[in-house]
Structure formats: structure tokens, C-alpha cells
Amino acid sequence: MLGMAALFVTVAQMASACIAPEKPYLPARPEDVRAYADLLRADFEGYIADIQDYFRCLDAERQRAFREAQEVSRDYGRLVEILE
């Protein structure tokens, strides 16, 4: 049962590891864009920086998951050998 608890903790950690940033809002009216240009520019620049961090996180998670899958595959091979 302890193994299942560890599995749930790991899954919960993975689910929250890479969080996509919110897409910045762009007003429809050009007047509003001009009125809030500094705030909008900052939101877009923040998004660009955050999405790059998000992509790096996804890349790292993919590498981690690949290594884990290889380990599980080896463990499964051992399990099959033991049970034969």
C-alpha cells in the first residue's frame, strides 16, 4: 500500500511541475491598446519569458519521464524473469 501512496504523490508532483502561463489579454479596441500600452507590453514580455521557462520545464519533464520509463521497463523485465 505504501507504494501506491508514493505513486500518488509522484503523480501529483508531476502534474504541478510545469504550469503553462496565461495567454496575455489584448483589447479589441486600438484606443484601449494605446491607453494601456505599457501594461500590455509588460504582460506580453512576461508571457514570452514565462513560456520559455515552461518549454524548458516540459523538456526536463520529458527527459525525467523517459529515464523513469526505461527503469520501469528494466524492472518489469526482472519481474518477468523471476516469475518464469
Helices and strands in order, then pairings?
Elements: H1 2-17, H2 30-35, H3 37-83
Description of the structure:
- The protein is mainly alpha-helical and 84 residues long.
- It has a domain at 28-84.
- Helices cover 82% and strands 0% of the residues.
- The chain is built from 3 helices and no strands.
- It has helices at 2-17, 30-35, 37-83.
- The longest helix has 47 residues, at 37-83.
- It is rod-shaped, with a radius of gyration of 22 Å.
- The two termini are 25 Å apart.
- The model has no long low-confidence stretch (mean pLDDT 89).
Strand content: under 5%
Give the number of DSSP strands.
Answer: 0
Compute the CA-based radius of gyration. Answer: 22 Å
The helix/strand series, from N terminus to C terminus, equals HHH
Largest sheet: none
Low-confidence stretches at least 5 residues in length (pLDDT < 50)?
A: none
Number of helices: 3
What number is the mean pLDDT? 89
Q: Choose one word for the global shape.
A: rod-shaped
* Share of residues in helices: over 70%
- Quickly give the structural class: mainly alpha
Alpha-carbon distance between the two ends: 25 Å
